[in-house]
């Protein structure tokens, strides 16, 4: 199917062209009946069989062609979605310019669907418009140059008006889609923050803003519809005028009132009828094109939006091709880290790390400390490949962290962010995250280890709410620890403020679990917590715009 993308369109155009022999047969039968009723009946039976067979062929070609173009359109959409989601996935989760989640979801899932009717309705109509009217014009011109001239003169007005209407249609569709995406993004954002809005009495103001956005979207949608109706009306008007003029000419010609317009001989009844039957078919592809004009505008707007999602932003280190090697779990052995002269800045902002050096022995445990904003999260994200250093070298186990190694290295890392995301689903799926390498037995053990086994037993089969609704901060921290533990291959644990906002008793339990999990592995914890710092043997202090670090032992938190 990939190698002949034109075939579906050609089949559809061929099926439309079959109307020519059908019309010829019908005109011939009526002509024969008018000349001589007896022979006319025999001709009519033969004609009926011919028209029926041609009709069957036409329907088969139409069905085959439609199926092909539809399948191609869906394949193309799937490819575009894959590219867009891959581009989104390649952007760092720490990139604040990333498209809003609601907007991206709306563009990829909903708006992108407009590409299918563009390919499956508009493009076949375009092919038919290119092939069918010229063929019909030729067939008409063979019998009457005047009828052909009438068709020829009325036809160009249609594309002309359509083009005028068309450029407005595309702009209106783009505006409508941006508005729709914006509404999705706004809604998702405010729904996520509903508790804050309610607690601070801002629900009414948000509802008013939402209503305003809804009104604006309605206006833009009406604009698109007005243009779509206008384009149909323009076309219907000109095609009706064209058909009417041909009908008037043929009628008066057969009556002998307008004797000119043919190639010498006057038209017979059959020839006149043939020309008359072809006139509406001449305009049919153009009408189809007009009906699908709006599909083209929406499809192009959706394509432009998908391209927007692929704009470069802050990139993660992405595994190249087949570079990911399966990692065989072995006895835990930590991963060594070497960072030399590493520079990092967010876009044009001042550098967060500059000429930064760090060396960590395999199996070492260290606290990354420093004032808020000094770059602790950035440091962990660089090691996880969630941000890319501008300059300098990062080596894990002696291997440079790049596209060729990241896939394999990442299997041996475990990450616990500052705000672990809890997905809607069971505790178990939230722990396994559908990872192949995580087995059920290990999950049960890790749930017990991380101290949430009691919770699992208290709420069997419980589906956790979106974003962890229904779980306390301490329970979320333990669930995140269970995720770390469920990966037997992890040799480097990167943990960002695991005890933030926890009471001292829960924090102590979380620290115990974390240190238990980290035995034999390399552990880097970004933290402000003196309790946690006191339990870690080495501290690396980052200064603001870190060119320097201070290394110290763990006695003085
Ligand atoms: N996505 C981002 N885009 C631009 N700048 C950012 C982004 N994330 C963080 N920053 C900035 O980078 C700097 C380092 O941030 P980082 O989150 O690493 O600090 P931190 O030491 O982990 O702070 P905290 O202790 O508060 O978590 C800060 O100045 C912060 O404002």
From TrEMBL:
Domain ABC transmembrane type-1: from-to ranges: 10-298
Organism: Lampropedia hyalina DSM 16112
GO process annotations (BP): cysteine transport
Membrane topology: Multi-pass membrane protein
Parts of the chain that traverse the membrane: 39-61, 148-167, 227-251
PROSITE patterns in UniProt: ABC_TM1F (PS50929), ABC_TRANSPORTER_1 (PS00211), ABC_TRANSPORTER_2 (PS50893)
Protein name: ATP-binding cassette, subfamily C, CydD
InterPro entries: AAA+_ATPase, ABC1_TM_dom, ABC1_TM_sf, ABC_transporter-like_ATP-bd, ABC_transporter-like_CS, ABC_transptr_CydD, P-loop_NTPase, Type_1_exporter
GO MF, one example: ATP hydrolysis activity
């Amino acid at each position: 199917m990939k190698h002949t993308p034109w075939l579906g369109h050609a089949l559809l155009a061929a099926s439309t062209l079959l109307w020519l022999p059908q019309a010829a047969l019908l005109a011939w039968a009526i002509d024969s009946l008018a000349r001589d009723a007896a022979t006319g009946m025999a001709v009519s039976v033969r004609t009926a069989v011919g028209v029926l067979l041609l009709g069957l062929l036409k329907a088969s070609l139409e069905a085959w062609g439609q199926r092909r173009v539809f399948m191609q359109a869906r394949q193309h959409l799937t490819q575009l979605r894959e590219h867009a989601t891959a581009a989104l996935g390649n952007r760092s989760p720490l990139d604040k310019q990333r498209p809003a989640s609601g907007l991206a979801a709306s563009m990829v899932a909903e708006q992108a669907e407009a590409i299918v009717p563009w390919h499956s309705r508009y493009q076949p109509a375009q092919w038919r418009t290119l092939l069918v009217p010229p063929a019909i014009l030729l067939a008409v011109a063979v019998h009457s140059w005047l009828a052909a001239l009438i068709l020829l003169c009325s036809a160009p007005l249609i594309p002309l008006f359509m083009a005028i209407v068309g450029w407005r249609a595309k702009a209106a569709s783009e505006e409508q889609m941006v508005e729709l995406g914006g509404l999705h993004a706004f809604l998702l954002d405010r729904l996520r923050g509903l508790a804050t809005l309610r607690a601070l009495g801002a629900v009414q103001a948000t509802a008013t803003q939402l209503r305003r956005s809804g009104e604006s979207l309605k206006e833009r949608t009406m604009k698109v519809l007005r243009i779509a109706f206008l384009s149909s009306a323009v076309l219907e008007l000109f095609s009706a005028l064209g058909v009417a003029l041909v009908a008037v000419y043929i009628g008066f010609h057969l009556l002998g009132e307008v004797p000119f317009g043919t190639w010498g001989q006057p038209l017979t009844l059959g020839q006149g009828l043939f020309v008359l039957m072809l006139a509406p078919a001449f305009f049919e592809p153009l009408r189809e094109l007009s009906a699908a004009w709006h599909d083209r505008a929406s499809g192009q707007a959706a394509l432009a939006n998908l391209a927007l999602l692929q704009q470069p932003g802050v990139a993660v280190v992405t595994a190249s091709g087949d570079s990911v090697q399966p990692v065989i779990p072995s006895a835990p052995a930590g991963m060594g880290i070497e960072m030399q002269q590493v520079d990092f800045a967010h876009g044009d902002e001042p550098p967060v790390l500059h000429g930064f050096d760090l060396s960590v022995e395999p199996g070492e445990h260290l606290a990354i400390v420093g004032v808020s904003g000094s770059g602790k999260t950035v440091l962990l994200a660089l090691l996880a490949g969630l941000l890319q250093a501008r300059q300098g070298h990062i080596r894990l186990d002696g291997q440079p962290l790049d596209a060729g190694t990241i896939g394999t290295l990442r299997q041996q890392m475990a990450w616990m962010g500052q705000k672990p995301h809890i997905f809607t689903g069971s505790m178990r799926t939230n722990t396994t995250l559908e990872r192949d390498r995580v087995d059920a037995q290990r999950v049960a053990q890790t749930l017990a280890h991380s101290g949430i086994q009691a919770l699992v037993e208290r709420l069997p089969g419980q589906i956790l709410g979106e974003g962890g609704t229904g779980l306390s901060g301490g329970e979320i921290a333990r669930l995140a620890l269970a995720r770390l533990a469920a990966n037997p291959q992890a040799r480097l644990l990167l943990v960002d403020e695991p005890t933030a906002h926890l009471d001292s008793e829960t924090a102590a339990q979380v620290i115990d679990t974390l240190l238990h999990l980290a035995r034999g592995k390399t552990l880097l914890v970004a933290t402000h917590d003196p309790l946690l710092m006191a339990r870690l043997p080495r501290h690396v202090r980052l200064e603001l715009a870190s060119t320097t670090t201070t290394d110290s032992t763990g006695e003085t938190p």
